[in-house]
Amino acid sequence: MAQTITVSLGERSYPIHIGENLLHLIPEMLQKSGIRGSIGVITDTHVAELYLQQTISFLKEAAFPCVTHILPAGEESKQLSRIEEICGTFLEGRLDRASAVVALGGGVVGDIAGFAAACFMRGIPFIQVPTTIVAQVDSSVGGKTAVNHALGKNTIGCFHQPCGVVIDMTVLKTLPPRELRAGCAEIIKHGVILDAGLFNYMEKEAASVLACDLKALFYPVARSCEIKSAVVAEDEKEHGIRALLNFGHTFGHALETVSNYSTFLHGEAVALGMCAAAELGRLLGTASPEFCCRLRACCQAYGLPVVWSELPVREALQAMKKDKKARAGTLKFIVPCDFGTVEQRTDITEELAGKALESLLRES
Ligand code: NAD
Ligand code: GLY
To answer: Of 78, 104, 269, 285, which one has the fewest beta carbons inside 10 Å?
Structure first.
């Protein structure tokens, strides 16, 4: 149960190592990337308690001097002021252009650490060590880094590819069940957009995946990384096919924004967003009612929300218009056709998007 996948980006290609007990690979990956300087390890309060000492021991054994920066756990940390604080830690620790960053944590840590690495000294290398399912199957691959603004999610950031990703599946054993379930939404998303077989697997294996059986989780994690790597290799900066990965996210990000990032985990908002996008497909006639039922049932099997009775529809529509995926006032949506097939639409009226959102208000 081990696999290495390459994200093919010419000179900036990088490996993703997936397996169990892999944290020892961190210094090796830094050495192979030609890093000789000090390392800035960024993590959060929860992950620090569990995996920071082990990570630092591996780095010290390989003679890498390190400084650490521990963020408060949670989405609230994804703000610009944290970047300034991290740069302060790096400057006090005398990191320089020969240094590198290790992002040890979930998607929040990965997004902030990647952005800090992109900004510090005009850009230093970093490696991703994702510790949640969301981060292992999605955020650690592809080089999107960002922090949030009160007016919109992920609105301040840049593309900065890591020089490698170490996916140690063993760390998932300490993940709270709610976080595990939320991560499954991103795997289901990959199945819907590009791989019906992956969707079928998730439907069938819900019990063992939810029990965090690493053998059952290996295939969907590795397959998601393959799918994401192929998409990023073809369209790094999201001028085309990469936009498909935003399935469920135009709605989902709006739900996160209007709930002040406090009601739903990211993956939960994506589950609701996928259900709204499925309803949009049904209204447009691209997706069948059976498709909508199966997707909803799969999300429910993973304990993901499919209804939000307090959803402020009008506010969510306003938030969608400010989303960075909306260009010149045109909303962009990824709508499903069938499992494994989606399409991008830019002809969706506010009225239709509103109807899709309204379908989340109650069980259908
Ligand atoms: P997260 O980083 O907040 O982690 C979730 C929680 O789990 C946190 O409390 C964290 O401390 C804890 N945790 C992490 N690993 C753990 C472990 N192994 N054991 C115990 N606890 C652990 O959230 P997330 O769901 O990983 O990521 C969500 C973020 O990722 C959002 O901000 C989202 O926008 C971003 N994201 C980015 C991309 C991208 O392409 N850059 C893609 C998807 C999501
Ligand atoms: N999470 C969507 C992307 O990386 O493009």
So the answer is: 285
- Compute the half-sphere exposure of residue 119: CA atoms within 13 Å on the CB side of its CA: 22
Residue 266 is a catalytic residue: yes
Of the residues 46, 78, 189, 228, only one is catalytic, namely 228
pTM value is 0.96
Question: What residue has token string 């976080």?
Answer: 179
Does the annotation count 238 as an active-site position?
yes
Q: Tell me which of 148, 179, 246, 279 is the catalytic residue.
A: 246
| CATH number of the domain encompassing residue 100 | 3.40.50.1970
Ligand 2 pocket member 107 (CB < 6 A) = no
Q: CA-CA distance, 195 to 86, in Å (whole number)?
A: 39
Tokens standing for residue 296: 């909803």
Could you read off the pLDDT of 267-298 as tens digits, one per residue? 999 999 999 999 999 999 999 999 999 999 99
Active site residue 350: no
Assess contact for 186 and 149: CB atoms under 8 A.
Answer: no
Residue type, 268: E
| Residues 156 and 194 occupy one common structural domain | no
Task: Please state whether beta strands 165-168 and 14-19 pair in parallel, antiparallel, or not at all (unpaired).
Answer: parallel
